[in-house]
Design a protein that fits this description.
By secondary structure, the chain is an alpha+beta fold.
Length: about 575
């Protein structure tokens, strides 16, 4: 397939923000893509492989400007001016490429494979000559591209393709191209255990429904973790669970999935990032103490004092450090223990379809507590008094509350989903506003006075997972330390865009739009009906949405993707809970 065919689909996609139209365009691209299907699924996400393979282009805007200058004989300042005017390096490359008078006759046909292979070489080149190599590969692509092609290639390399399609839209398009809606749930489930769009695309193209149905957890492939719903009281939880429940401490640390296959041990975060190097002690202790051929366990890692058993929150230990550094450093200063609460795979067998009580039994048989690994503390009961006492003990031990786990025969491990199989309960739920929320930054307002040079407030959105849009919900201006506040302009610098991003739904217009990528955890006083915001618009009251009053920043959630943010539906639930309590 020629890359220009992909380019023309990208151009069509930019003309619409409607999810159905995007799905149709993508489906037709997939149908035409033949042997290039897998690579195209990555390219439309601006990538070369699934995220967890950690392939990065390592090319800054500056390098592209240098390359464009060398090929056009235009000084870098001139190119910078075009960049400033257009606000987009892809369009800048388009303009430069259109202006090159004596472009040689294309020496290579620009196929998708050619582009993909060259981008792979570009990403792989490392070492002191790498900048030169990257520039050469880029220029070679430019010389063989039309201006439109190089526009998108440049955006891919600089991480700004931003076609506005989430994984769920790509999956829908694959279903529409090769499969049938009746398999949608199975396909989503397979993707949650094996979050590699290229892999799923090939299974669908080959109509391999059996493999789709049987895709479970696989060692060394990070899965999307199971999530919990929330309810307001132990009574409600017991009822919802039909009195089939166990209660576990809800540890306040970092979600951790540990995989082992042969001699390889890998640790992944909730966001599917590999974090093995951040947990050297956990890795070493696992290697030394457990002799499984292959295994996957799920749990929460928490800094703690092995002498007293006291647990510490990560952010209290080291608030001031950058995230990656912080973890390394914390585990050196203070031991980290992994509380294991689930097992998904053992010695060649996926366990995800076993009920939770059986999975727990397998954990108990295979793990004895030591300084680095402990099983989550739990009780199996539906007796309100006992559970309340257990809840108090959990708070005493430095936990956030409890997570109820369904113990019926249906209690499978449900990857990536919030189902009623797990329900969390924290102290605050009984009072005021139920829980903190994870919201996505979609805009920023200039700061004045003491905040000159930073922002006065941020426009925050919830995620509408039905429409795949981000709906404005609150204006956040408090809770920032100076350090965080003044670090924001740098953090946002490559996310500021001229126009409202395709998936953003907001009446309020900020001083600058921010491409929805950053998630922040927020607390607030109350959810109210508001004509100003778009969250749940028209759903509670005509011509109004929901808004959060008195929002306050708790922390930046680097471990969450925008699609992991609190959904509009959850906010509606919180709104209803709050009304009931009043
Ligand atoms: P939240 O982040 O408030 O939605 O709460 C869910 C999170 O609690 C999970 O993603 C885990 O990281 C964490 N957690 C702590 N202890 C447990 C447990 N025993 N079972 C399940 N999740 C737990």
């Amino acid at each position: 397939m020629l890359f220009s065919d992909v380019t023309s689909k990208f151009m069509e996609m930019e003309e619409t923000t409607k999810r159905l139209e995007l799905t149709d365009i993508l489906a037709s691209l997939f149908k035409e893509s033949d042997d290039d299907l897998k690579n195209i699924t990555y390219l439309i996400q601006g990538k070369l492989a699934p995220d967890y393979e950690n392939i990065e282009f390592g090319v800054s805007d500056k390098i592209i400007i240098k390359a464009l200058s060398s090929v056009s004989a235009m000084p870098e300042e001139e190119i910078n001016k075009i960049f400033y005017k257009t606000g987009d390096l892809g369009t800048t490359a388009y303009e430069i490429s259109s202006g090159i008078q004596q472009k040689p006759l294309f020496t290579e046909e620009l196929t998708v494979k050619y582009v993909y292979d060259n981008l792979t070489n570009l990403a792989k080149s490392s070492g002191h000559e790498s900048i030169r190599t990257k520039i050469n590969i880029y220029l070679n692509l430019l010389m063989n591209s039309s201006p439109d092609d190089i526009k998108y290639i440049t955006r891919i390399i600089t991480g700004k393709l931003r076609l506005g399609v989430a994984d769920s839209t790509i999956l829908d398009s694959l279903v529409s191209a090769f499969s049938d809606k009746q398999y949608s749930d199975a396909i989503e489930n397979a993707y949650n255990f094996h979050p590699d769009i290229g892999y799923i695309a090939l299974l669908l193209k080959n109509n391999d429904i059996e493999r789709i149905n049987n895709t479970g957890a696989e060692p060394l492939i990070p899965f999307k973790v199971m999530l919990a719903e929330r309810l307001r009281s132990i009574n409600e939880i017991n009822e919802k669970m039909n009195h089939n429940s166990a209660y576990e401490y809800k540890y306040d640390g970092l979600r951790t999935q540990l995989h082992k296959k042969g001699n390889v041990i890998k640790i992944f975060s909730r966001g599917l990032e590999e974090t093995t190097l951040n947990f050297p002690d956990i890795q070493k202790n696992f290697k030394d103490n457990y002799k499984f051929d292959s295994i996957i366990i799920d749990g929460e890692s928490v800094p703690y004092n092995p002498d007293t058993g006291e647990l510490y929150p990560f952010q209290m230990v080291s608030q001031r450090r950058g995230r990656k550094y912080e973890l390394n450093q914390v585990s050196k200063e203070i031991p980290i223990v992994m509380f294991i609460f689930d097992i998904l795979y053992l010695n060649g067998k996926s366990l995800v379809n076993l009920p939770y009580p059986e999975r727990r039994k397998i954990l108990e048989k295979n793990f004895k507590d030591n300084d680095y690994f402990k099983l989550a503390t739990r009780i199996v009961s539906d007796d309100g008094d006992k559970i309340n006492k257990f809840f108090e003990e959990s708070i005493e031990s430095g936990c956030e509350g409890v997570v109820a786990k369904n113990t019926s025969n249906e209690s499978v491990y449900r990857a990536g989903a919030r189902g009623w199989l797990w329900i969390k309960f924290k102290r605050d739920y009984e009072k005021e506003l139920a829980d903190s929320m994870d919201l996505v930054v979609i805009g920023a307002f200039n700061g004045h006075g003491r905040r000159t040079g930073a922002y006065g407030a941020l426009l925050m959105a919830s995620y509408n997972d039905q429409d795949d849009t981000f709906e404005s919900f609150t204006k956040l201006g408090t809770g920032f330390t100076d350090e965080v506040l003044f670090s924001l302009p740098k953090m946002f610098s490559d996310k500021i865009v001229r126009e409202k991003p395709a998936r953003v739904n907001s009446k309020m217009v900020p001083d600058m739009w921010i491409y929805p990528e950053i998630v922040m955890e927020i607390n607030g006083a109350e959810i109210t009906v508001s004509p100003v915001h778009k969250c749940a618009y028209d759903l509670i009251e005509k011509n109004s949405g929901l808004a959060l009053r008195f929002p306050r920043l708790i922390k930046i959630r680097n471990d969450k993707k925008p699609e992991d943010a609190t959904t509009t539906n959850e906010i509606i639930e919180l709104f209803k809970m709050q009304k009931k309590t009043k």
